[in-house]
Amino acid sequence: MNTYIVREVIYPIYRALKRDRVLDFLAEMHRVEVLDPEDVRKFQWAKFKRLLEYAAEHVPYYRGVFKDLGATPEDFKSHHDLKGFPVLRKRDILANPEAFISEAYPRSRLERNSTGGSTGENLYFWLDREVCQARQANNARMDEWIDIRIGDRVAMLWGTAFDMERSRKVTNVLRNWVSNRLLLSSYTMDLASLDDYVNRLTAFRPHLILSYPSALIHFCRSVAERGGMAVKPRAVLCSGETLYDWQRDVIEDTFGTACYNHYGCREFGALARECRMRDGLHIACERVLIEEMPVSDSTSGAQASELLVTDLDAYGMPFIRYAIGDLGKITWEQCKCGLGLPRLQSTLGRTFDVVRTPNGNYLGGTFWTILLRKRKGIERFQVIQEKIDEITIAFIPTEEFTDDTRRYIIDKVREAGGPEMKVKFEPGPDLALTPAGKFRFVISKIGLPDGNRDD
Known about the structure:
Elements: H1 3-18, H2 22-32, H3 37-58, H4 60-69, H5 90-95, E1 110-115, E2 123-128, H6 129-145, E3 154-158, H7 161-167, H8 170-178, E4 181-185, H9 191-204, E5 208-211, H10 213-225, E6 235-238, H11 245-255, E7 259-265, E8 269-274, E9 281-283, E10 288-297, E11 302-311, E12 322-331, E13 343-350, E14 355-356, E15 362-363, H12 365-372, E16 378-387, E17 390-397, H13 403-417, E18 422-427, E19 442-444
Parallel strand pairs: 3-4, 3-5, 5-6, 6-7, 16-19, 17-18
Antiparallel strand pairs: 1-2, 7-8, 8-9, 9-13, 10-11, 11-12, 12-13, 14-15, 16-17
Helix pairs in contact: 2-6, 3-4, 10-11
């Protein structure tokens, strides 16, 4: 459908018929994102205090928290005071999920959602309608940062078989058609499906392509074998996995356009995204408060931080200071693009995508891709950790894999992780994907030390 008609006619009418607050949220984001950083902080803190006061009154879990603390919301006067407020972890919600649901919301006004996360254990949670609308507005606003507007054609190589089944419902087919969206399943990527995707993308002519990095790399390899891609989108957006520099290079070479990094999750939706400067990911401060909780990182000699997230719009089931399972660093130094929003500078990635070693080092995905990606004899790899002093490297071998290759890898791992580190090799025909169709280069089943673990 014509993008101008969608943006200027159909979309405003659609929002008016739904009588929701998406456009109000979008206008607020446009206003706040250009404020000075200090004014952004004030706006963010005011929203946080309103949520804290609400949770203390209407949410059983948080009533209990304040009772245990012997405190009231009024005792928390600034960001600095939050260190005294307990960190929320997945295990806390799993122990008693009903205690997190607001007593002020009838269940009919809540939408059920779930995430498996890195541990694979499903977490079910509830979203109120207003937070869903805020998420929609935030996605539209972030698209603007990379020159994509409401109504532009968006192709998504995304999701699971379940997502595809939902997309075939009449209401979703109509919604995708009206909003100029094409959904292709990353769950099905055999040769016949990839040929079909190329044809559909060529006919659709998307302005934006959205996908997991690993799925897009697989698609790009297939395109290269077929002589290239005629589709030239305005931008490519990667989310759901860590985006490595080598992946960005391959994607940009294939599509002839800029590839941007996006950070989000099921629990909170879009959290941060690169702007056209591509110098860190701007955090959606109107939507979320993200804090840093230091974790030692002796590999770099610096400090990595576990990220704690509060959804400032979620009142049906508040998540306050939730340990999302990611490591990162935040800077409030203003970006050259002019936005007053802070930027997330990712360091190691997911806490369960980082190998923890006997000598105290944390070896993130970049360590393993540099060590293994271009090593002769290894077509693809996956690093799996189940013990502090042992890793398994599952890989698809070629004829060039030798004992020298094996010894070189073991030596480098022990240099970084300590002489006690044991390395096992498991050659095989293929590597595992997650149920969502994602690929993880590193799977650590031990997580952070006991003080930070989520088990």
